[in-house]
């Protein structure tokens, strides 16, 4: 097909009400088909058909993950340019757009409520639970190592949970702040910090999906085993970057892609691990570079998970 013919196909794919609404939703981050179906209040086969047309035209990308599929705007190419141009021109006050945005927020709030219920239940046993399938000691040592023996001014731990990262990294910062939305997890974190006499760290209740940059600027942000609770880790990364000083760094620990669907159904996970390519794209969109990535295969033979440690740097760094 000629270049002109291809472009006409892309324009045809984008030139329809529901598909334009889908593009506008995806401009705000990755979404599962399940969520898009609920937000648009249309049948799943219908939404899937629209998404397939958008994907065939190169406007969006599909990522299959276990029983779910996620969609995002295409990161590059003619379709990507057009999708970005079009979505930047959608009237934010259009009634359909306003309703879609309100439902998108509701869907996110529901997911967060599910995660909060889960963590309220497991807070007391979390430290034991998390060691089950993960090479924890090696990962913790590596996180500390990434900071290369430096002591930074401010370190912020997003989704601090029981505060373990604040404890492990205590020698590496002058001031530490841990944020979490679970009162139950924070209660455990406060006892941990008190027991370890770690007076230079404090934990606060807060939603890390809508961060107030005023709590920064931080030299280092840590996101340890948190991103897989979010449908759109890229959106979370963009938020985290807003907390950084120019040249600041983000340390992320999370699972490599896996197929353990029960982690979704029984343990509130949303994403079945994060791939190298996804992290590279999300980081680039947030204005961050991947400085290094290390993998830690499971030390148990059954149902083991590989853990990855990413070190990201703010692109405005001067070195
Ligand atoms: C798997 S735990 C990890 C805790 C800790 N970083 C660790 O590795 O031990 C995930 C944590 O993220 C927190 N979390 C999930 N969604 C959050 C949100 N929107 N805002 C703040 N914390 C959130 C949960 O409450 C939970 O404590």
CATH architecture of the largest domain: 3-Layer(aba) Sandwich
- Rounded to the nearest angstrom, the distance between the terminal CA atoms is 47 Å
Q: How many separate domains?
A: 2
Series of H and E elements: HHEHHEEHHHHEHEHEEHEHHEE
Uncertain segments are none
* Helix-and-strand structural type: alpha/beta
Q: What sort of overall outline do the alpha carbons produce when their principal axes are compared?
A: globular
What is the CATH fold-level name of the largest domain? Rossmann fold
Q: Which percent range describes the beta-strand content?
A: 15-25%
CATH class bucket of the largest domain:
Alpha Beta
Bound molecule types? S-adenosylmethionine
Tell me about the largest β-sheet.
7 strands, mixed
Q: What is the fourth-level CATH superfamily of the largest domain?
A: Vaccinia Virus protein VP39
Largest beta sheet: strand ordering:
6-5-4-7-8-10-9
SS element count, helices: 13
Oligomeric description of these chains: single chain
Helix content: 40-55%
Radius of gyration: 20 Å
Mean pLDDT: 90
Secondary-structure map:
Layout: H1 3-14, H2 17-26, E1 31-32, H3 33-40, H4 44-56, E2 60-65, E3 68-73, H5 78-88, H6 95-122, H7 126-129, H8 136-146, E4 152-158, H9 164-168, E5 173-180, H10 183-195, E6 201-205, E7 218-224, H11 233-241, E8 244-255, H12 262-267, H13 276-285, E9 288-296, E10 307-314
Parallel strand pairs: 4-5, 4-7, 5-6, 7-8
Antiparallel strand pairs: 1-3, 2-3, 8-10, 9-10
Helix pairs in contact: 1-5, 3-6, 11-13
Bound molecules: S-adenosylmethionine (SAM).
The site of S-adenosylmethionine has 22 residues, from α6, α9 and β5.
């Amino acid at each position: 097909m000629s270049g002109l013919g291809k472009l006409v196909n892309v324009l045809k794919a984008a030139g329809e009400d529901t598909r334009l609404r889908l593009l506008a939703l995806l401009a705000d981050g990755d979404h599962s088909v399940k969520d898009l179906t609920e937000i648009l209040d249309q049948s799943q086969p219908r939404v899937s058909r629209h998404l397939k047309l958008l994907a065939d035209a190169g406007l969006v990308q599909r990522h299959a993950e276990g029983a779910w599929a996620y969609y995002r705007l295409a990161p590059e190419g003619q379709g990507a340019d057009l999708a970005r141009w079009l979505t930047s021109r959608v009237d934010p006050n259009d009634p359909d757009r306003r309703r879609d945005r309100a439902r998108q927020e509701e869907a996110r709030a529901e997911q967060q409520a599910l995660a909060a219920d889960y963590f309220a239940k497991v807070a007391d046993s979390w430290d034991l639970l998390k060691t089950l399938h993960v090479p924890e000691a090696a990962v913790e040592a590596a996180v500390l190592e990434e900071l290369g023996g430096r002591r930074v001014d401010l370190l912020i731990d997003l989704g601090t949970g029981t505060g373990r990262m604040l404890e492990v990294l205590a020698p590496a910062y002058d001031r530490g702040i841990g944020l979490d939305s679970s009162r139950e997890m924070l209660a455990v974190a406060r006892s941990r910090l008190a027991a370890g006499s770690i007076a230079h760290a404090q934990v606060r209740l807060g939603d890390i999906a809508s961060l107030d940059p005023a709590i920064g600027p931080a030299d280092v942000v840590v996101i340890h085993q948190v991103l897989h609770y979010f449908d759109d880790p890229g959106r979370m990364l963009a938020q985290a970057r807003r907390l950084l000083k120019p040249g600041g760094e983000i340390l992320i620990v999370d699972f490599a892609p896996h197929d353990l669907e029960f982690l979704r159904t029984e343990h509130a996970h949303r994403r079945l691990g994060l791939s190298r390519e996804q992290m590279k794209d999300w980081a680039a969109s947030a204005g961050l570079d991947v400085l290094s990535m290390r993998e830690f295969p499971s030390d148990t033979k059954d149902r083991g998970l590989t853990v990855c440690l990413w070190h990201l740097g703010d692109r405005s760094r001067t070195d």
